[in-house]
Specification:
Helix content: 25-40%
Distance between the termini: 41 Å
Shape: globular
Number of strands: 15
Strand order of the largest sheet: 6-5-15-14-11-12
Radius of gyration: 32 Å
Order of helices and strands: EEEEHHHHHEEEEEEEEEEE
Mean pLDDT: 74
Structural class: alpha+beta
Length: 263
């Protein structure tokens, strides 16, 4: 059975909308352990308690290994080396031919005065000099590109805007789980809402924001008055992926509300 998150009506398996209030029902899947019907974003199976998050993480790791193996096989097919083949083919007993081929490689590096005094056939530069120059040129853009990408990531900040007081709260970047609530002895909150108006409707241990890569998820951890996302109740244990502009209400009545912002 699928329970409607809006009116708690029990709907048959496979239903897409609630029979009572016509609210779209959450997507479901089968538990890999016992085969029971569970929501796709649920953390644990309600029948057998199987850890659904660990199962999905194993599938993602296995898919990542396959993609990396396929990606590594593609460059192996491209093995021509047009810049190396001419050097291997130019093998002659006459020293004039070898020195002349090397002089064309060194002309951009050496000064024109030394070449004007000697003939092209008599130039004897070391072949290691142009090779080292090429390596330095190839590595320079890579370092600059990585530096620019790090700068772009550092400029992105995640904030919660308290609607009632127009107060911005920047989320900590060094935490994987951010606790929202009020001071207590068990799990101290990372975001303390006790100073906001109507905070009495917020539980001491109310909700968590989990950070997984570049994704942010909000989860109700068993609060007394519930958590609402865009005016829809979030069942305890279920997670909702946050997007810019999502409205998070702690408790009923939309009295303590935050807007999820990315800047």
């Amino acid at each position: 059975m699928i329970v409607c998150p809006n009116c708690n009506h029990s709907n048959p398996d496979g239903a897409q909308t609630c029979e009572a209030c016509y609210t779209p029902l959450p997507a479901t899947a089968s538990c890999p352990n016992c085969g029971a019907t569970v929501q796709t974003d649920a953390s644990f199976c309600g029948q057998c308690g199987f850890n659904l998050k660990a199962s999905r993480a194993t599938e993602e790791i296995f898919a990542g290994e396959i993609s990396t193996d396929v990606g590594n096989e593609i460059p192996e097919l491209e093995t021509p080396e047009p810049l190396v083949e001419p050097q291997r083919l130019v093998i002659s007993a006459q020293p004039s031919a070898e020195t002349s081929s090397q002089s064309y490689l060194v002309e951009p590096v050496e000064t024109p005065t030394s070449q004007s005094e000697t003939s092209p056939d008599a130039a004897t530069p070391s072949p290691t000099t142009p090779v080292s120059n090429v390596e330095l040129i190839s590595t320079t853009p890579n370092s600059s590109s990585t530096g620019s990408s790090k700068t772009q990531l550092q400029q992105q900040t995640i904030k919660l805007l308290h609607v009632q007081t127009d107060t911005n709260i920047e989320l900590p970047q060094n935490l994987a789980v951010i606790h929202i609530g009020k001071p207590n002895d068990k799990i101290p909150p990372d975001i303390d809402v006790s100073g906001f108006p109507n905070s009495e409707i917020v539980s001491r241990i109310h909700a968590d924001i989990r950070i997984e890569g570049d994704a942010y998820f909000v989860e109700d951890v068993g609060s007394s008055n519930g958590t609402y996302i865009n005016s829809k109740p979030l069942q305890p244990g279920d997670r909702h992926r946050l997007r810019a502009g999502d409205r998070i209400a702690l408790g009923k009545g939309d009295l303590v509300t935050f807007l999820f912002q990315i800047s």
